[in-house]
Amino acid sequence: MDRIIIKGGKPLYGGICISGAKNAALTLLPCALLTDDPLTLRNLPRLADVDSFGHLLNQLGVSTTIEGARPDEFGRVMTLRASNIASTVAPYDIVRKMRASILVLGPLLARAGQATVSLPGGCAIGMRPIDLHLKALEALGAEIEITAGYVKATAPKGGLVGGTISFPQVSVGATENALMAAVLAKGTTIIENAAREPEITDLAKCLIAMGASIEGLRTDTLTVRGKSKLHGATYAVMPDRIEAGSYACAALITGGSLELMGARKETMPSILSGLVEAGAIIEDVEGGIKVSANGGLKPLSLSTAPYPAFPTDMQAQFMAMLALANGTSLLTETIFENRYMHVPELARMGAEIEVKGRTAVVRGVDKLHGAQVMATDLRASMSLIIAGLAAEGETEVGRVYHLDRGYERLEEKLQAVGADIERQSDG
Ligand code: EPZ
């Protein structure tokens, strides 16, 4: 297993290219199932999860060809083609390693009239049920059966039928599955209390480019007029707002200044307001955003919530940064039930954090010290990297395969802005 070694204390200065968004890529890839034409996705990040999703689609009969990055973009170009659907089964051994595989359920059901997908099971941060996904598909006429750990979904004889999907709580993935099913359903579908994350808008824009009719983008009510067929398209994945926010925290905690090239301010309102409250100077620069430290870090209180509120995917990174703030911060995690596994690891580095129910009380300390720490999930891993960049001495982060799921070429990007960071591999 690889580990990352950081010698902390160096302020970061320079520019970082922000890659295509993992959580957009993972919902754009299954769109290829919705047409027999080629779908070309640009600015795809080089991430383990993107590769795993490509392998799953190959098993379903989707051909995938990859070109290198364009000179003006960081990511890869992948052309996918589902001329026909060879299989409608997403097996346990793939789904258990990548929960996002559940996002083939809606498009398979819409295109092939059936889908058998292994239940994804929980993960480190929570139970991660899929009841909202299944209820949404039932609202479009699907019959759902759960046997032997698999969901078997079957569309009516004539295909899915438009209806009203009213989510009792916001779910990004369930909104994505509902959208990808509704675009080929007969008639109109209304999706109420839809997630409004930028990745949902990216999905809707890609589906519209493929000929879908979707109204209400960026709102919590989406209206989809079903089509009999969709055609191919070429679509560029949006930049990763969570990667950008993560590097912004690294700039602040090290007392530096980073230009986040490709980052889009309009997709990060609550991340940027949190950074400003913590003391950052935010400036617009050509093609991106500049985030600079401005003296010491200030404490703040925030709660995670669905977009446009503060994203749960930034909670661990902010916690690492606020471990060095001049005062006490309160971070409340309202989305996932177990997203504080970075706390004991940060404590090994000298952070003073107490978890009371859903709230973490972060008492700022003068310094963190390097230590051997263990990554437990994707965003927790990044919080340990952020802390290591500021800690005195050497930090070794183990199990960095978690990081490789969501941060493309992390060491390379950080080395280029002055970090003393390297990857060591056991093999
Ligand atoms: C997406 O997960 C993201 N993953 C997550 O990012 C992100 O944290 C999450 O949205 C919230 O923004 C991808 O896009 C691949 P949800 P998703 O459905 O869709 C509950 C990262 O670090 N729920 O919005 O699984 C659920 O348990 C990852 O990049 C149900 O109860 O999240 C959670 O408490 C982590 N029933 C809440 O809703 C359901 O059927 C929000 O989950 C579905 C969800």
Helix content: 25-40%
Number of strands: 24
Secondary-structure class: alpha/beta
Low-confidence stretches: none
- Helical segment tally? 14
Q: Largest beta sheet: what is the strand line-up?
A: 22-23-1-24
Shape: globular
Small molecules bound in the structure, each named once = ligand EPZ
Largest sheet: 4 strands, mixed
Q: What's the pLDDT, averaged over the residues?
A: 96
Overall radius of gyration: 21 Å
Strand content: 25-35%
Tell me the distance between the termini.
7 Å
Describe the structure.
The chain is of the alpha/beta class. The protein contains 14 helices and 24 strands. The protein has a 4-stranded mixed sheet. Strands 2-15-17-16 form a 4-stranded mixed sheet. β20 (352-356) and β21 (359-363) form a beta hairpin. α1 (22-28) runs parallel beside α7, α5 packs parallel to α6 and α6 runs parallel beside α7 (198-209). The mean pLDDT is 96.
Which helices and strands appear, and what pairs or packs with what?
Blueprint: E1 3-7, E2 13-17, H1 22-28, E3 38-44, H2 48-59, E4 63-67, E5 76-81, E6 89-90, H3 92-95, H4 105-112, E7 114-118, H5 131-138, E8 143-147, E9 150-154, E10 164-166, H6 172-182, E11 188-192, H7 198-209, E12 213-215, E13 221-225, E14 233-236, H8 241-253, E15 257-261, H9 269-277, E16 281-285, E17 288-292, E18 301-303, H10 315-322, E19 328-332, H11 342-348, E20 352-356, E21 359-363, E22 372-374, H12 378-390, E23 394-398, H13 401-404, H14 410-415, E24 420-424
Parallel strand pairs: 2-15, 3-14, 6-7, 10-11, 18-19, 22-23
Antiparallel strand pairs: 1-23, 1-24, 3-5, 4-5, 7-9, 8-9, 11-13, 12-13, 15-17, 16-17, 19-21, 20-21
The structure holds ligand EPZ.
Ligand EPZ is lined by residues 22-23, 26, 100, 126-133, 169, 171-174, 197, 312-313, 335-336, 378-379, 406.
